[in-house]
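Z., the sequence and structure:
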Amino acid sequence: MNHDWEDRVTAAWAAFDAYPQERAAEFRAVIDKLVAELPADSPLGPFERACAWDSTGHSDRAVPLYRDALARGLGELSGYKARRAKIQLASSLRNIGQAEEGVALLTPELDASSDELDDAVRGCLALCLSSLGRDREGLSLVLGALAPHLPRYQRSMADYAKELLEG
């Protein structure tokens, strides 16, 4: 899509916090209006709609839309947005009681090309693991993600993260 459309979507999301929960439908209508400008087969449409449903507390409505966006080739259009879709889909799956599917979706992302979403992958995967009673694995992921951001104790925290999996 063109930069104008992307700028308007970005502006809509920047205004999201101005919509209290009781005006969630109004926010989704803003996103739907932007999506209506897209070609019918664009993967951006279901992606943006999924984000809107998800962000307004409807993981159940978001899941099929994220799946549709990925199936339509969101990854070919934007690898970054596809990775976001996987993270958000995994989170939504966890929210609706399908954490195992979230783990299966995000585990390969641990070996994907590194970007600014790496910590989000680990955080969401940790939540999915915790929902499955695999707290030590989840804590290991979170400590491993946190370690590089610490001003000190980076090696210690990274080692502790590994020890959690060995113990």
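The mean pLDDT is 95. The domain at 3-100 is CATH 1.25.40 (Serine Threonine Protein Phosphatase 5, Tetratricopeptide repeat).

Let me know what you think.
H.
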